[in-house]
Specification:
Layout (H helix, E strand, L loop, with lengths): L1 H9 L9 H8 L2 E6 L4 E3 L7 E7 L2 E7 L3 E8 L4 E2 L13 E4 L3 E7 H10 L1 H30 L9
Antiparallel strand pairs: 1-8, 2-7, 3-6, 3-8, 4-5, 4-7
Helix pairs in contact: 1-2, 3-4
Length: 159
């Protein structure tokens, strides 16, 4: 099982370049998952206990905007990682997520992996290098979506 999981993780561009020993460490905290379409994966503000490496399917990320309801910020698919809020206290989801189609992937136990990263700073740094661009991209997508909502013609957008 671990060898099969390691092969699946190694095949994903998100973890490209990780040494095989780090892939095996990572896989110790992962398990294959299948999620049906239109399933709530997590709610904005809930405790972030996992993250997912998507192998197939799509997931819509969104946030609640007062007066505008829930807004989709970005839709992610195969090869993407779902969830970065597990990295930083207070470990609460910054967005919500709903599957848009059936999803297969690998779910990782965030708390256990954080402990492992504390014990192995090289692993922690390698993961941080991979997750930081995801964080920047997701926050930029949220910014652009909010500009779509609030930056309509005739409205002044503050810097």
């Amino acid at each position: 099982m671990m060898t099969e999981l390691a092969g699946r993780v190694s095949a994903q561009p998100f973890f490209a370049g990780l040494p095989p020993a780090m892939i095996l460490q990572l896989c110790a905290y992962g398990e294959p998952v299948t999620l049906q379409a239109d399933r709530r994966v997590f709610f904005e503000g809930e405790t972030a206990e996992r993250f997912w490496l998507l192998e197939s399917g799509t997931v819509a990320l969104g946030l609640h905007v007062p007066g505008h309801g829930d807004q989709i910020v970005e839709t992610v698919g195969a090869g993407a990682v779902l969830g970065w809020s597990w990295l930083y206290p207070p470990y609460r989801w910054q967005f919500g997520a709903v599957t848009r189609s059936p999803v297969t992937g690998i779910a990782f136990d965030a708390a256990a992996l954080r402990e492992r990263c504390d014990a192995d700073p090289a692993l922690g740094y390698a993961l941080l290098l991979r997750f930081t661009p995801v964080i920047v991209d997701r926050l930029q997508a949220a910014r652009l979506r909010l500009l779509d909502l609030w930056g309509a013609p005739g409205r002044r957008v503050a810097p």
